[in-house]
Write a structure and sequence with these properties.
This protein has 3 domains: 23-83 and 104-182, Thiol Ester Dehydrase, Chain A (Roll), CATH 3.10.129.10; 217-375, Thiol Ester Dehydrase, Chain A (Roll), CATH 3.10.129.10; 376-484 and 498-598, Alpha-D-Glucose-1,6-Bisphosphate, Chain A, domain 4 (2-Layer Sandwich), CATH 3.30.530. The chain is 28% helix and 30% strand. It has helices at residues 9-18, 46-65, 85-92, 101-106, 174-202, 244-263, 347-370, 387-402, 439-447, 574-577, 583-597, 603-606, 615-623; strands spanning 27-32, 69-79, 112-122, 126-137, 142-155, 218-219, 225-230, 268-277, 286-296, 301-310, 317-327, 341-342, 380-381, 408-413, 416-423, 426-435, 461-467, 472-479, 500-510, 519-527, 537-539, 545-551, 557-564. Strand 9 (286-296) and strand 10 form a beta hairpin. Residues 1-18, 82-107, 370-376, 484-496 and 607-627 have low confidence and may be disordered.
């Protein structure tokens, strides 16, 4: 679950130059690609790369933990093109027209693979390690990104059986703060990943494909691969367990064979959803590796892989599973159209449908995360199938905005501060103040958006549309109009005549994951087929907004409100930023009074009376709507 919303390697390098900081857990590895590391096309084999990545990440985890660690999972692995045609031209000074497919691959041998791993966040006994892999051409001094991934490591118990409690990570740079904040959200998505698939299939949100209708389809049993590996001392790590990277390499090997049997060509591995290590393996174990094509789409193939360990006596132990996506590229490096697959009865049908659900999740996540700030509309369609990743992106975007370190103080009045942040063409603002209310209580009060019109004059009306779950809600918000050219604000005595604005917002709330974390209430616009733009209202959009509430001391809390100002939002704050008014001060004073007045009230007393009247029927309508 990638937290990057945009950016490339050049931007990463620029930020790193601005923020020189030594992370104590950071480990670097550099390897020259030799012929023994390459595949039949003279490219670095993915299995070898996974070994190096796992080794580097493990050393980083152990450096932080100060004790032995084992791989629990490695996920969100995206393999990008290893080299571009223009890079080849610069390196060898040849014309693009003369490049052959074979020549394209020959440049992988002799290049340098650079791997960087560092602990993003430590939880109780587990930690997330971020891994970045780049390639370097020694002759042209060019660098490009190959892939990135996140690995989860857990500490091993001591000789006395005690768990090793990890010390917390202290982020120093803006990038480290972003990764630290979003790591908790990625962990949350990992834990519910399997449940997402089950919910999609059980709710009928995924259209069931008729796998038997394709007469010319290839039977799935023809793609079956079964291979046995004997774990020898060279396959073990320094803890005498089977090296996780070696297991992953063996799994990639059988998955590639399965994909090749379907397409009768050499497939290219593009993504790996997740390697999940369910148990250990030791020297002397036999590893039984099984792979089969679950489903074949127009340009991609999903292969499921399962690894089991066994001794000469005793039952098989399930130790790992993964789902890998392959493509087949033609001589122009474009994806080829692939044959269809006919699954086996029962279990094969289940895997066939689950592959469709996983593809839906991948596409939803890619669409949500890749949305650019300048794109119109900013809203992403909401439905139950993409809810988890919309919520993830909603909270992650707010955490990353809050982690920025170049906020500029624009105005202050009675300890209520207004900050601004300029990022290319985007202006963001932050308003914060301390209140004499415990953080947990302030969180409960502010998170109930239906009551926000009580203290915020920018909210004329806020109705709950749908309660998704305990943490996510859909609201329709109506705000006052701001006529073009008006010098007042929506809170001034005569705001002028104009059309009202309304917003459809997804509100995602999170409690702290650890000590020092704030409470989070994230807001972003979504679109609903049941609530299209209506006459008499101008449909506005919010890209990223919300509150963070931090417990400071003596039952005091620091409340910060953030907003990436879209064209519909900017008029409400423009006069404050220009210093022509202080409506932000009056709004926060009203918020503080509201919190103080209700700090002892029960939650039931604050719930809007209309909350439960429409949600049941609307929930069913939304689930049955195909977006």
């Amino acid at each position: 679950m990638s937290s990057r919303l945009s950016g490339d390697l050049e931007e990463d390098e620029e930020e790193e130059e601005e923020e020189e900081s030594i992370n104590p857990s950071e480990v670097k590895m550099s390897q020259i690609v030799m012929p023994c590391h390459s595949n039949h096309q003279q490219e670095l084999s993915v299995g070898q790369l996974l070994k190096w990545m796992d080794s580097t990440a493990c050393l980083s985890a152990e450096r932080h933990a100060g004790s032995p660690c084992v791989t629990a999972s490695m996920d969100d692995i995206h393999f990008e093109h290893t080299i571009r045609y223009e890079d080849l031209c610069l390196c060898m000074c040849v014309c693009v027209v003369e490049l052959k497919c074979k020549s394209f691959y020959l440049f992988s041998v002799g290049q340098v693979v650079n791997i960087r791993a560092k602990v993003n966040r430590a939880f109780n006994t587990s930690m997330e390690v971020g891994i970045q892999v780049s390639c370097e051409d020694l002759f042209s001094d060019r660098h490009w990104r190959v892939c990135h991934a996140y690995a989860t490591f857990v500490t091993q118990r001591t000789n006395t059986g005690k768990k090793v409690t990890l010390k917390p990570i202290v982020p120093h740079t803006q990038r480290e703060q972003e990764e630290y904040s979003v790591a908790a959200e990625r962990r949350r998505v990992r834990m519910v990943h399997d449940d997402i698939i089950k919910d999609l299939l059980s709710s009928g949100s995924i259209q069931q494909a008729d796998s038997s209708a394709v007469c010319s389809a290839v039977p799935a049993e023809k793609t079956k691969v079964e291979s046995v590996e004997l774990v020898l001392p060279p396959h073990a790590n320094h803890q005498v367990n089977t090296f996780g990277g070696q297991i992953m390499a063996w799994m990639v090997n059988v998955a590639t064979i399965a994909a090749s049997r379907l397409c009768q060509a050499h497939p290219t591995l593009r993504t790996i959803d997740m390697f999940t290590f369910r148990g250990p393996s030791q020297v002397g174990d036999r590893l039984l590796l099984r792979a089969i094509v679950n489903n074949a789409f127009k340009n991609s193939i999903e292969v499921g892989v399962r690894a089991e360990a066994y001794q000469e006596e005793g039952p098989n132990r399930h130790i790992n599973s993964a789902f890998m996506t392959f493509e087949v590229l033609d001589h122009n490096r474009k994806p080829c159209t692939l044959p269809r697959i006919r699954p086996e009865p029962l279990e094969g049908e289940r895997r066939f449908q689950e592959a469709i659900a996983r593809k839906k999740i991948r596409l939803d996540r890619k669409y949500i995360i890749s949305r650019k700030q300048a794109e119109v509309p900013l809203s992403v369609p909401w439905d139950p199938t993409n809810q988890v990743y919309l919520s993830y992106n909603n909270v992650s975007a707010l955490k990353m905005l809050a982690a920025r370190n170049n906020w500029r103080l624009s105005s202050e009045k009675d300890e209520v501060r207004l900050y601004t942040l300029e990022q290319k063409s985007m202006l963001s603002f932050r308003v914060e103040a301390e209140v004499d209310v415990p953080a947990h209580r302030a969180f409960c009060l502010v998170a109930e958006l239906s009551n926000r019109p009580c203290w915020d004059t920018h909210y004329k009306k806020c109705e709950l549309i749908h309660r998704v779950d305990d943490d996510d809600f859909l609201y329709r918000v109506v705000t006052p109009s701001v006529p073009h050219g008006a010098r007042g604000t929506p809170t001034s005595a005569n705001p002028g005549q104009g059309i009202l604005q309304d917003f459809i917002l997804l509100a995602s709330k999170r409690k702290p994951c650890g000590s020092g974390d704030p409470y989070v209430i994230a807001l972003r616009s979504v679109s609903l087929p049941t609530h299209p733009p209506t006459e008499g209202y101008n449909r506005g959009e919010v890209l990223c907004a919300g509150f963070t509430i931090l417990d400071i001391k003596d039952n005091m809390s620091l409340i910060s409100y953030y907003n990436q100002a879209s064209p519909e939002v900017l008029p409400y704050i423009s006069t404050d930023i220009a210093g022509l008014s202080s409506s932000f001060y009056h709004t926060f004073c009203s918020c503080s009074q509201y919190l103080t007045r209700n700090r002892l009230s029960t939650s039931e007393e604050l719930v809007d009376q209309h909350q439960t009247t429409k949600t049941d029927s609307l929930s069913e309508a939304l689930r049955n709507t195909q977006l």
